[in-house]
Amino acid sequence: MTDLLDYIGLGMMAVMNGPALFEIGGIGLPIALVMLAAGLFTGIAVGATPGLAGPMAMAISLPLLISAFGFSPDALLPVFAFLIGIMKGATLGGAVPAILFNLPGTPDAMMTTLDGHPMARNGQPRRALRIAQLSSVAGDSFSDIVLFVCAPFLAVVVEAYLDLPEKTALLILSISFIAAVMGASVGKGLLSVSLGLVVAYIASGNDLSPRLTLGFDALDAGVPLIAAILGVLIVGEILATLETLWRNNRALDVKTEAHGTAQDGLAPGDLKRITPVVARGALIGTVIGALPGVGSTLAATLSYSICARRAKRIPDAQPFGTGAPEGIAATEAANSAVSGANLIPVLSLGIPGNAAAVFLILAADSIGGFNPGPAVFAMPEGETNPQLVIAFGIFTLMAIGNLLNWTVGGAVMRSMSVLAKVPATRLLPVVLLVSLTAIYVQETSMFAVWATLVFGVLGYAMRRLAVPVLPFVIAFILAGPLERSAREAFAATGADPWFLFSSPTSVILLLMALAALVFLGRQR
Amino acid sequence: MRHPSLRLTPSRMLGAVVIVLAVLALLVWVPNDTVSGYVQSKRGRVSIGDAMAPGLAFGLMALSGALILWETRKSDAPGQPDPRGPAFLAVMLGICVVALTVMIWAGPLAVALFAPDETYRNLRDAAPWKHIGFALGGTGLVTALVCLVEHRFSRLALLIGLATVAVLIGVFDLAFDDLLLPPNGDQ
């Protein structure tokens, strides 16, 4: 217990005692805190801009951050701080255009439009924004607390009870689950997973001669990680959205902004009305967020429908869809609660569950010195685990991020409403050039830029054929650990071809993988 | 009139193509482009070879194709794929390819024309030479895409392109000494 408290203290000190970027009134502001605030404000701005999303901003800023802070372990906390700030800010900012313009800034804010915009149209935009802010930050804070408690616990359990065959089976379960729950069909989910695995296996084997290169020298070092991920996730999205905008010139046009009346702002009794709804939404979002691949849109939809159904049973309750505060609260609490819980599988198992988590893993992978997984939470006798210090540093940053969101988040949200008027037709080509430049700066090779375009086309085609893209990215990241643990398990069991069935735990995990594919797929 | 279960829809076409490609990869690509096979034995120690993981991945791909066909056996969204989609994609890619080509060659061309005694490699870290390709290609990329999507040419699109390039040069090139804008790291 004392060791644990020491590590928590070290994590907090790592954030607070870092080098100061500048001083205010003689007091130095630690660089990680400055980066956190900068990321948070950037995230709110990005969320408030239709056509942009948190992962897009994380993708563009990652090479810049690495250029600025370098590849030493000292860079980890400032880089994570900025990325976590974007992650938290974008969830909050997504509500701004949803409420003011009936235009969700992020996909998970879609349900916020249902009650947020009617309330704004009724002359109470500030009230709607304030309810969204309070609910969003409450959901996020609850989810973070669950993360702080569960991630170390889960990591310790995994490390203590799972051996190599079980760890292989766990990776198979994660990939199967993601394939089953994402997208229009299990078949398409599995196709996305298999494509991610194949691309990751190019030139990544143990033989001296690299595999699957088709004789191209340029592929000898494998497919650049950043090109594959940014190509499919970001460039593919830009190409598909540009096509939608070209077909329908007014697809993301901004409608008239709703203006407030004299009675705008939180009404008496609002907090009492939304508290139980926020609690329920936060719980739903946290449970859904802890499952890899299940997104915040599902959490928001589920929370909204449950609350709407309950409201129908109460005789004098304001109907949902007419500007009910409970409608906004249910959605915002649930979609924000997903982000913290999403990091449970990332930090404890090294398994990313959403696009934001992918970029945190990418940052850790690029900088080095921090490998998300059970080893992060190990407490070796007589020595300090620097990864655990970083993990508690991340938790500290998340808690401070929530504090900023509680205090200044609302004012920043309101000031960003002007960004919703920036047309996506002009913004997305700029984002494309920024992304390609950022990739070049990191890789210093035009091959990476061309590869990004090729993966962009793949991402575009996947979207048009309703093949989900996130399983591709997650499989691409997990392909290496999966092959490595299978090789080690095979060797450790004396070349037993049935090593995956060698223990009851791994058999149960494999049966769960099969059940996920059969039952979760059948429900759609 | 063909029976609905036999109608060729985009998803069914995808399922069939995936199966054919996965089987071809399993039979031709994987065996010919890996050295150690599925399982290898070295000095009496048996271990997993480099072909195992890609082999299983392509097996999974074939299975996914079969599942897609199975899932669409009764009904699938009918309709022809809109030919305007691929055509628009081709135009966007054309713009990207031309812009990147300009980015790569404009600098060396400018050096050949205006500083024939030098090579671009020697000048790739000297203004204005190092900015010529990026400025022309980047501005062209942004301007052309904005004009394409908005169905009209506008001076504002050109200004957006120029401003983006200027900001990127400021952020990457002026702020960091060790960073190279495209295409200068390859030259």
Note down, in words, how this protein is organized.
The complex is a heterodimer of chains A (524) and B (187). The longest helix of chain A is centred in the first third of the chain and has 37 residues, at 125-161. In chain A, strands 1-2 form a two-stranded antiparallel ribbon. With 524 residues, chain A is mainly alpha-helical. Chain A is built from 20 helices and two strands. Chain B has two domains: 4-71; 84-174, no CATH class. Chain B is 64% helix and 4% strand. The longest helix of chain B is centred in the middle third of the chain and has 31 residues, at 84-114. Chain B is flat, with a radius of gyration of 26 Å. The mean pLDDT of chain B is 88. At the A-B interface, helix 3, helix 9, helix 10, helix 17 and helix 18 of A face helix 1, strand 2, helix 2, helix 3 and helix 5 of B.
- Residues in helices of chain A, as a percent range: 55-70%
Radius of gyration of chain B: 26 Å
Low-confidence runs of chain B = none
Quaternary status of these chains? heterodimer
DSSP strand (E) fraction of chain B? under 5%
**H and E string of chain B:** HEEHHHHH
> Hey, which two chains have the biggest interface?
A-B, 64 and 74 residues
Q: Roughly how many Å is the radius of gyration of chain A? A: 23 Å
Mean pLDDT of chain B: 88
Question: Helices and strands of chain A: which structural class?
Answer: mainly alpha
- Largest sheet, spatial ordering of strands of chain B: 1-2
- Helix/strand order of chain A, N-terminal first: HEEHHHHHHHHHHHHHHHHHHH
Strand order of the largest sheet of chain A: 1-2
Question: How does the major sheet of chain B shape up?
Answer: 2 strands, antiparallel
Number of helical runs of chain A?
20
